[in-house]
Amino acid sequence: MDAERVVELVYWRDVKTTGVVFGAALLLLLSLSVCSIVSVCSYIGLALLSVTICFRIYKGILQAIQKSDEGHPFKLYLDQEVALSADLVHKYSDGILEKLNWTIKELRRLFLVEDLVDSVKFAILMWILTYVGALFNGLTLLILGLVGAFSCPIIYEKHQAQIDHYLALVTNQVKDIVEK
């Protein structure tokens, strides 16, 4: 997905598509909070398989009643190539490798205290994250992040003037406190 399509999703430009994506992602995360990932994957597979088997049987019965010879209902999808190209795999793996190498170098720099100020900031962040981790588990944070990602942009777009006004007040208060 490109950035433009993501922006269209989170700003609810196409309500139907955004609703399906948001609902499916939220349902998946809520399911994972109740069941294990193995159970959730199994249930999703069973649901998908049930739908496709029922559709296949339905089309077979319809063909028998109408005495038509339409063939397999999923023939179009069965004939499509689903293999990943080597170029596509190399493109994404190179990007992931680049980000992974950057992360390793940055962590090495922080943990081996190349810059004392940055390492102290990182230590403070880790300390704050211990409290966040005590309050929430990772799945709860993902659910909150998903809801925030789909609700904050549209709320900001609709109430931008009021939010900017109060944000400016808070920013001025913080500047005053820092100056003191």
TrEMBL record:
Residues 6-180 form the Reticulon domain. It is found in: Endoplasmic reticulum membrane. The lineage of its organism: Eukaryota, Metazoa, Chordata, Craniata, Vertebrata. It is a multi-pass membrane protein. It comes from the Eukaryota. This is Reticulon. InterPro entries: Reticulon, RTN1-4. GO terms for biological process: brain development; endoplasmic reticulum tubular network formation; neuron differentiation. One of its GO terms (cellular component) is postsynaptic density. Gene3D superfamilies: 1.20.5.2480. The chain crosses the membrane at residues 20-49, 135-156. Keywords: Endoplasmic reticulum, Membrane, Transmembrane, Transmembrane helix.
